[in-house]
Amino acid sequence: MPVAAALLWPLTIELQQLHTFQQKKIPELVRSATLALKHVYINLLALISANFSNIQIQEIINK
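Below the sequence we write its predicted structure tokens.
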């Protein structure tokens, strides 16, 4: 669960800011939500990369 929270943190922040929706223009809102999703994707790729690195290190240790 902490991993999911960390991955979704940028999107969570953006959703918390939706209460100011009336003050934002739609293109700005879409841009910021897209940026938040981009950060989620980058965090997910980093997690997958780190996981593969750990697996490779374990394989080397076990040989």
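Residues 26-62 form the longest helix (37 residues).
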